[in-house]
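User: Good morning. I'm curious how L263DTV3 would be positioned relative to this chain. Could you predict the structure with it bound?
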Amino acid sequence: MMRKGIWPNVAVFSSPLSWFRSKKFQRIEPGGGEGDFVVKNHAWVDSMRDSSPTRVSLPGTGEHNSWIVHHPSALKTFELVTNAAKGKEIVIFLDYDGTLSPIVEDPDRAFISSQMREAVKEAARHFPTAIISGRSRDKVYDFVKLPELYYAGSHGMDIRGPSKSQLKCKKGDERVPFQPASEFLPMINEVYRALLNRTKSIPGAKVENNKFCLSVHYRNVDEKRWAALAEQVRSVLSEYPKLKLTQGRKVLEIRPIINWDKGKALEYLLESLGYANDSNVLPIYIGDDRTDEDAFKVLRDRGRGIGILVSKVAKETCASYSLQDPPEVMSFLMRMVEWKRHTSRARHRL
Ligand SMILES: O=P(O)(O)OC[C@H]1O[C@H](O[C@H]2O[C@H](CO)[C@@H](O)[C@H](O)[C@H]2O)[C@H](O)[C@@H](O)[C@@H]1O
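Assistant: Good morning! Here's the predicted structure, ligand included:
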């Protein structure tokens, strides 16, 4: 199942379901010697190709059917969700790309629809709601434009609460962002410039500065040039042992080696909201990408909370439910709001 990867300490998997079987694939530590870069057999191309979920088992296949039994649709089994939510304070966590907005070719044009914005706005009127994204906090805010939300940008390394909200952060002034990787800012900017320079000759490559982390996109790079792009990234990173590489959907993500991820951000936000060890709270996390697995895992390990993977195809995941795509995420949010209104009205009638 598992093959030697392109990057030092990264595994490459022969089937998409095996992506998630080891955490090793997500944690790609730079700094390995030239010999660690396994160019032979083009294993690295497989790794980059595997980050696209189009090669996985599709609905209707046996593999998908058995997967859906273990990760049922959160819409089709909505009652299971509301049964778990009865009498609990719900907190909603949302990923951005692939969850609130569809995956598109140009990362700068991954707009949220006005209907989705409205659904998120309504959700935030009834439940504390946060967006946890790999993008910079400012960029995700520019897309979503809802001041009433919590935003965690740079994979949770830049967290800020709503400016005008009745929600109170227990950790003090919610308007001061929490930035556990602030010391890495100069290094990230330096690496951003180096990557811009080293990848400019590769048509379609795009380097995105997400403030405390960077993305190198290869969605629009001819597959024949992926090797060249990977080599440039590897070579830059080999000079920065305090940075590591992870992979998302046709993107190489570079970030500081600190013990912080979307799962830690979720815990931080729950604590800030005063729900640290509260058995009366039910966090719901919805996301589509590998980095969201850190948050799903936190919920699974706590034994409280609901993880929902956005995917049309079977993938190994720590989430317990699934939704197919952003339109289904929107329907789910609207049903949560409808359910909340209904239960509040019923309570008032008592
Ligand atoms: O945590 P997320 O909010 O899901 O951010 C993860 C990455 O999302 C963006 O890239 C992805 O979406 C793009 C637009 O649809 C797509 O073109 C790209 O191929 C995807 O990887 C964002 O641009 C990255 O910086 C984030 O790391």
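The mean pLDDT is 85. The first helix runs from residue 43 to 50.
Let me know if you'd like a different ligand tried.
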